[in-house]
Amino acid sequence: MTQTPGIAITGASGRMGQMLIRQVSESDRLHLSGAIDQPGHPWVGQDVGTAMGGSALGVIVSDAARETIAGADAVIDFTAPEATLHFAEIAAETGVVHVIGTTGMSDDQIAALGSAAQKTAIIRAGNMSLGVNLLTQLTRRVAAALDEDFDIEIIEAHHNQKVDAPSGTALMLGEAAAEGRGVSLSQVADRGRDGITGARRRGDIGFTAIRGGDIVGEHDVLFAAAGERIVLRHLASDRAVFARGALKAALWGQGKAPGEYDMIDVLGLKD
Questions:
Q1: pLDDT per position as a tens digit, 153-198
Q2: Residues 64 and 97 in one domain
Q3: Which candidate in 31, 98, 158, 248 is catalytic?
Q4: Is residue 267 exposed (0-12), middle (13-18) or buried (19+ Cβ within 10 Å)?
Q5: Is residue 271 part of a domain?
Q6: Is 41 considered catalytic here?
């Protein structure tokens, strides 16, 4: 029987890390080959299944990222921007597919991934769920169909432990709306309103971030004109939807040429 692709998970002890480990362990198309956490973390040296409070999975949590990634076919990474850049360098050196769900990356950090993508396949998305990527496509098309008489607002809600705002998904939707309008998001984004701000500038794309409780992820794209509103909405109630998308991306990336890809590529939704 052909061996299934081995997957290494970074940030093993984190919320998404644990979800990814569960999803990979339950898959019959992939297997868990490694789990990575920060040096000094109490999980390092333990079986990851035991550390998660379940049965042993036969994979020891390691702080040796290079060795762990080199032994995998793909690394799935939902960590922090600086860590992601480090893992990208390793993935490039070892030729391992790098699936990136990390959010909060600056434009410079995203640009820095380009050199790694010359050596391996990098699949990066602000959100890896099927529904959100369909929403992205719809947002682009609706924005292209409507002129600036329709104001665009992106409203997102997440749990109270999320550290970045707007969310990666909200920015992805903003980019889609800007592309539909044929403009640069950096020129039209309105990401903060407080006090006497004056009237809304025509053509701007606004962002609102809500943080509270255990909200997994909610995103609305509002097109508002005089007398009418159009609302495109996606609600996520289970973090597993992001993990399943990441696994799909890791499988899709096997054998792909070096380059930068996204979930639209994975799902075959490119125009």
A1: 999 999 999 999 999 899 999 999 999 999 999 999 999 889 999 9
A2: yes
A3: 158
A4: middle
A5: no
A6: no
